[in-house]
Design goal:
Elements: E1 3-4, E2 10-12, E3 22-23, H1 36-54, E4 76-79, H2 82-86, E5 98-101, E6 113-118, E7 130-131, E8 139-143, E9 147-149, H3 163-170, E10 177-179, E11 184-185, E12 190-192, E13 197-200, E14 205-207, E15 224-227, E16 229-238, E17 249-251, E18 263-268, E19 281-291, E20 294-297, E21 310-317, E22 319-320, E23 322-330, H4 347-350, E24 355-361, E25 365-371, E26 378-389, E27 392-394, E28 406-419, E29 422-424, E30 428-441, E31 444-446, E32 453-455, E33 458-466, E34 472-473, E35 484-495, E36 497-500, E37 503-505, E38 508-514, E39 518-520, E40 523-524, E41 530-534, E42 539-541, E43 544-545, E44 548-552, E45 562-565, E46 568-570, E47 580-583, E48 586-590, E49 596-600, E50 603-607, E51 609-612, E52 617-621, E53 624-627, E54 633-637, E55 641-645, E56 648-650, E57 652-656, E58 675-680, E59 683-687, E60 695-697, E61 703-708, E62 711-715, E63 721-725, E64 729-735, E65 738-740, E66 743-746, E67 756-760, E68 763-765, E69 779-780, E70 786-788
Parallel strand pairs: 4-5, 9-10, 10-13, 11-14, 12-15, 13-23, 14-23, 15-24, 22-24, 23-25, 24-26, 25-26, 25-27, 26-28, 27-29, 28-30, 29-31, 30-32, 30-33, 32-34, 33-35, 34-36, 35-37, 35-38, 36-41, 38-42, 38-43, 41-44, 42-45, 43-46, 45-49, 46-50, 49-52, 50-53, 51-54, 52-55, 53-56, 54-57, 55-58, 56-59, ...
Antiparallel strand pairs: 1-2, 2-3, 5-6, 6-8, 7-8, 16-21, 17-20, 18-19, 18-21, 19-20, 39-40, 47-48
Length: 789
């Protein structure tokens, strides 16, 4: 290790020979040369630069005094600053001469470097990696090991704008890594098209005071925008057969123009339902040429593409491995509420954000902590195989205007991994639009009423979220994008709301919890503590919602069973398990749900007035409905068929309102399908409720089949009915049931033509039977029962 003697200026190398040690006298002459090879061998290039930074010396070093070692080794000259370097007399400049520069302004200021004089070079002086001598031809070029430094340009703080240095370093293809050793300010919006560059700000602050205006509505106008280049090679094919889901074999018109490992932007023509309704719109790589009209890509389709659809391929030259790390970014203020008007310049032109990528592969962003941004902190479009990690956004400048205040927005992306990130009072932490095979884990958002985790619904598929917290909203941005997503899995998540009620297929929610959240003390966030889910391959396990679950049916693509297992849901008054059809504010029916749902080992609690309908067949296994304490509750049933095995009712009534047909025709009562209820498996009913009945039907248009087996119904008072049947056409069979206390209410006219009432082998304890219909050929309820007074 070399160090300098401040008094003598002597460089000392412990245990070095006299040939390896040398002195530069204070009179400005080098008394003994240091061989370049030995310096670099002893220190490495990086160490040589550090030695140069610490080295004192005269104003000029004499090139004439440098002698050969006798072994053909070139020698190294020393100067204290860049000014001294560029002031060297032409007579001392020999082609290939190496000079240690002790610092940028003065020796030891950190801007030291090793340079080489290139007599034939015509490069422009950029102030850091290339210096022109004041007199003479050629230039000095930095000798480096691929690592660049802003200090080479005399930038030691944010007072000097760093744009020129950034351009010079990044556009130098011999530099693979750029390091910052101070805070920096940028006033330009830089666009780079190169690959294999890492910029590490090492935790220093980046600001944009005085930055140039952005173009309108341009989230890619970041301080650093890494962008692949489109080529003019465009190939279009009209599909002659369906491309099935999961296929990685794509049809082309002529495979001869495709080359293995080449990259293409593949885009299907949009569906007529929306300008952005495209199931395929990604940057993908050729992995195999199969035949004259088929090519394999590195992507399995998430959606089938029908015969006759038009598919366009454009060859791309992506950027690869452009990575930005460890930055503390502070944006600049913009006028408040940019949604109301658009003066010049507009707020989006003023605002700033740190980094963006387009047509990029393996371009990671890590350790970026930002505040006061306008557009997303990390903006991505047509990216693949990337990681965004340990990034943070706190209190952005704007979040009401679409696209603003995001930590990361990712459009048309594949194989992305977002992890260990967090936001505070932002719009979105993670936004996916047309994304596939991506994962988000251990990310957390507070002040989350805007929704930390969202997808637009542009046919996203195979997304996984693990161990996150914050509001979720999937496929919820409108029909322009398609309102569609498929195979989204969320595990171990805490949210104010989970909203996935549009056309989302095969949604899996596991160990997810919707909790009541407050926007400020005492002010509850609207609809917090709720799930809104689509019943299309839905599976929920171990989930809880403090105030509501709403199930609707927006699509019928799924092939797996709809199932809710081991969950618990609080239900506020007037809320809907199955959403009703409304005319204005008047309920007129239920959203058609022509599927089946099984709920097992679960409970609904605090039930007061809840709609449960629009499900063809609802199977309840060991599932409980528990009324609001001291008040009881009513569950309005619009399902066609309910099967209850085990579980039961506590202070609740199932009120049968009639089922609606599959198309939701509520204008003609004749279209109402029959309903049926089966209770067995040791179910238990108990307590009382406001309807004073556990099971009730009073609609004269209802046709209901009642099947009672092994279950126990115990009324808390004499006025509570085990069943209350006053209208419609009814078919009732009770065999082996146990009724205790309370009464029966069954009007004779409810079992007329086409109906029947048959009760036998039942145990009845102190039940008031006076309101049973008179026995006849179709009404039997005395024989075979065991009555206890």
């Amino acid at each position: 290790m070399f160090f300098s003697d401040n008094k003598t200026g002597k460089l000392n190398a412990p245990n070095a020979t006299s040939e390896e040690n040398g002195t530069i006298g204070m009179n400005g002459k080098a008394n003994e040369a240091i061989s370049r090879r030995k310096v670099l061998k002893t220190l490495g290039i990086g160490g040589a630069i550090l030695a140069g930074s610490a080295f004192g010396g005269s104003r000029f070093a004499s090139a004439e005094s440098l002698q050969s070692s006798g072994k053909g080794e070139r020698q190294v000259m020393w100067v204290a600053s860049v000014e001294e370097l560029t002031s060297l007399p032409p007579g001392q400049l020999k082609d290939g001469l190496h000079v240690f520069v002790g610092g940028y302004f003065m020796s030891g200021d950190g801007g030291g470097k090793l340079v080489r004089y290139m007599a034939g070079s015509a490069k422009a002086d950029n102030g850091g990696t290339v210096h022109k001598p004041v007199k003479g031809q050629g230039c000095f070029e930095v000798v480096h090991d691929g690592v660049g430094d802003f200090r080479w340009f005399g930038i030691f703080d944010a007072k000097t704008n760093a744009d020129g240095a950034l351009d010079a370093l990044v556009n130098d293809l011999s530099i693979r890594r750029v390091e910052a050793y101070s805070d920096l300010n940028f006033v330009k919006r830089h666009v780079f098209h190169r690959s294999d560059i890492e910029i590490d700000f090492q935790g220093h602050t980046v600001t944009t005071e005085g930055i140039e205006l952005n173009t309108v509505d341009n989230p890619f106008g970041a301080v650093m925008f890494f962008q692949g280049i489109k080529t003019d090679m465009v190939h279009t094919v009209t599909l002659t057969e369906e491309l099935p889901e999961y296929s990685d074999i794509f049809e082309v018109a002529d495979s001869s123009i495709f080359v293995v490992n080449s990259w293409w932007h593949a885009q299907i023509k949009n569906n007529p339902g929306g300008s952005a309704q495209r199931e395929l719109d990604y940057l993908i790589q050729v992995t195999e040429i199969l035949d004259a009209t088929h090519v394999r890509f590195n992507y399995k389709l998430g959606w089938p593409l029908a015969k006759g659809r038009q598919l366009t391929y454009r060859k791309m030259n992506p950027v690869f491995r452009c990575r930005v790390r460890n930055m503390s970014f502070t944006g600049i203020p913009v006028p408040p509420n940019g949604t109301s008007s658009r003066p010049f310049p507009t707020w989006d032109q003023i605002g700033s954000n740190p980094v963006a990528y387009e047509f990029a592969v393996e371009c990671d962003a890590s350790g970026i902590k930002a505040t006061k941004v306008f557009w997303p902190v990390v903006m991505r479009r047509y990216n693949t195989h990337y990681v965004t990690e340990r990034c943070q956004l706190m209190n952005p400048e704007e979040r009401d205007w679409g696209g603003t205040g995001y930590l990361t927005q990712q459009i048309n992306v594949l194989y992305g991994h977002v992890k260990d990130c967090n936001t505070s009072n932002a719009r979105h932490l993670n936004d996916f639009t047309c994304a596939a095979y991506c994962m988000v884990e251990n990310c957390h958002g507070d002040g989350d009423e805007y929704g930390p985790f969202v997808t637009h619904g542009q046919f996203e598929h195979d997304l996984t979220y693990i161990g996150n917290s914050g509001l979720l909203s999937f496929a919820n941005s409108g029909s322009t994008w398609g309102d569609s997503a498929k195979r989204v899995t969320v595990k171990k998540h805490i949210a104010s709301r989970i909203v996935a009620h549009k056309r989302i297929t095969d949604l899996t929610l596991e160990d997810c919890h919707a909790v009541v959240t407050y926007t400020k003390p005492g002010v509850k966030m609207a609809n917090s503590g709720s799930f809104w889910v689509n019943m299309d391959g839905l599976q929920m396990r171990g989930c809880t919602a403090q105030e509501m679950i709403t199930i609707s049916k927006g699509s019928s693509r799924g092939k797996r069973k709809n199932m809710i297992d081991s969950c618990s849901f609080g239900m506020l008054k007037g809320y809907e398990v199955a959403r009703p059809i409304r005319t204005g504010t008047t309920q007129v029916g239920y959203t058609p749900c022509n599927g089946e749902l099984t709920i097992l080992n679960s409970e609904f609690y605090n039930v007061e007035d809840v709609n449960l309908g629009s499900i063809d067949k609802l199977t309840l296994i060991n599932t409980w409905f528990k009324g609001l304490p001291q008040a009881g509750g009513t569950v309005k049933i619009g399902s066609r068929e309910i099967v209850m095995q085990g579980g039961g009712l506590v202070d609740c009534c199932l009120l049968f309102t009639g089922a609606w047909d599959k198309i939701g025709d509520v204008n003609n009562a004749k279209n109402k399908p029959d309903q049926s209820i089966t209770i067995d498996g040791g179910a238990v009913f108990g307590g009382t409720n406001g309807e004073k009945a556990f099971l009730k039907s009073v609609d004269p248009a209802n046709v209901i089949t009642w099947s009672f087996g092994n279950y126990r119904s115990a009324a808390a008072d004499a006025n509570t009915a085990h069943f209350h049947i006053q209208g419609g056409t009814n078919k009732l069979k009770a065999v082996g049931s146990h009724f205790a206390g309370g009464k029966y209410e069954a009007a004779g006219g409810a079992f007329g033509s086409g109906g029947y009432f048959f009760m036998t082998s039942c145990l009845e304890e102190k039940v008031n039977r006076t309101a049973l219909p008179a026995e006849n050929d179709t009404v039997k309820h005395s024989a075979g029962n065991f009555l206890m007074a």
